[in-house]
Amino acid sequence: MKSYKDLDIYNLGLELFYIAHLYSLKLPKYEMYELGSQLRRASDSVTTNIVEGYGRKKYKADFIKFLTYSWSSCLETVFHIEKINNLYPEIIPDDLELIRRYNELSAKIFNFIKYVEENWKT
């Protein structure tokens, strides 16, 4: 692995960020800077923390800490998608598929954290 860009969790997280970002811009104007901003920040945080953690990979504990932040942001993103779906069901037509994909990403991040805990050499 030469770069964080080689990580499946990074690539999937970035793909999902772009999807979530576009949906957040479809919210009513009064939600754009509230719920929309929360969704954008949480979904962006998933990949941002992977990148920052990778930059600290020399320090196993730091790497795990940032991967855990990424995992938490993934869970937060699902929560915001669920709120949007309940308040504005027309915004994300296939919300269950997006949630399914974020849950898949969450599991992958969790498994990668376990891998780093058990196998990472600094």
TrEMBL record:
Top-level taxon of origin: Bacteria
InterPro entries in the cross-refs: 23S_rRNA-intervening_sequence, 23S_rRNA_IVS_sf
Record's protein name: Four helix bundle protein
Record lineage: Bacteria, Pseudomonadati, Bacteroidota, Flavobacteriia, Flavobacteriales
Pfam families xref list: 23S_rRNA_IVP
